[in-house]
Amino acid sequence: MTDTIVGAEVFLTSPGRNYVTLRITTADGVVGHGDATVNGRELAVASYLRDHVAPLLVGRDPARIEDTWQYLYRGAYWRRGPITMAAIGAVDVALWDILAKRAGQPLYQLLGGAVRDRVLTYTHASAWDTSALLDAVDARREQGFRAVRAQFGVPGLPTVYGVHKDVAAYEPAARGAAPAEERWDTSAYLRHAPAALAAVRDHVGHELELLHDAHHRLTPQQAARLGKALEPVDLYWLEDVTPAENQEALRLVRQHTTTPLAIGEVFNTVFDLHHLVTEQLVDFVRVAVVHAGGVSHLRKIFALAEAFQVRGAPHGPSDVSPVSFGASVHLGMSTHNFAIQEYMGYADLVHEVFPHAWSYADGYLHPGQEPGVGVGFDERLAARYPYDPAYLPVARRLDGTLTDW
Q: Which distant-in-sequence residues (6+ apart) come within 8 Å of 126 by Cβ?
């Protein structure tokens, strides 16, 4: 063994929103960073890392990345789930960061080198009414984006998962000791969505890639109905049409619409996605680096997907820290069936806490040429912004029964 891990530290910080960061240090002083953020459950994953995983890392060879992954996944017996997989993901990304730094190469070079010059990205445009939504889409186009996810209000409802009246930014999470409760009306949404998205398409023409997220709110029959109604809109994809735990439900949707389907941001392993991929029930898998056990495991998911003409499109919300976001862009640079990377963007303060080499320009991302993942962590600045409880809302139907958020 040429070197060992001598330290594994966990940091919670909230420079506008909460992040969990892992720092691994080797005996010869090389440092690697990983992200373990699980929105609304940050303390749980931080404890998992600090109390159970970090002590197991000290003394291990940092270059044995796959062995460490298997050790943490199989050795614990209690497998899968977002907390476990985010913790493993943080370790995995930090170890890849160390290995690439030692090699003096950006991570994507160690993953087989570039298969493209830059990574296509999409961002969000949200507004309550249609006219304001068109303005929001135009603003994103002026920023150079070639693909935009459009989200809008629903008549008769006060909020719609992150879209608030008189507030331009899409921000679902809210500070407080308990989640906010919202009301939801599927019938009103299904009446409004086709017209709203058709208005956007008529406004922008067919050069802009247009996406939309139904956010798990529909039954399979309702999802099929929406997908068919949206075929003239020519969506790049329709996302999360129905809760994906019932994977066979996507077969009904497939039978009734040719609208491309994207799903998987709440999944954590290749086993969660196996049926959807091998049966070709979706077109895009949206698992995030941090929530799927890091670079090592997400590469395996994308390799399976490639054999079935399914493409990768990782989740990239602003609650995924710039560390795992950077790792995702490296994967995009080096993975042939990688389609597009979500990019919601970050507040200026987040960029300061996590200085990075990855960059955005003209609708595309690039991971940069710095050795490793190319994302740092300013511990002193982060310490000025302690953890602040925040939760995604819960949703109830008009009769009061809980529904999916």
A: 133, 136, 150, 151, 152, 162, 163, 168, 169, 170
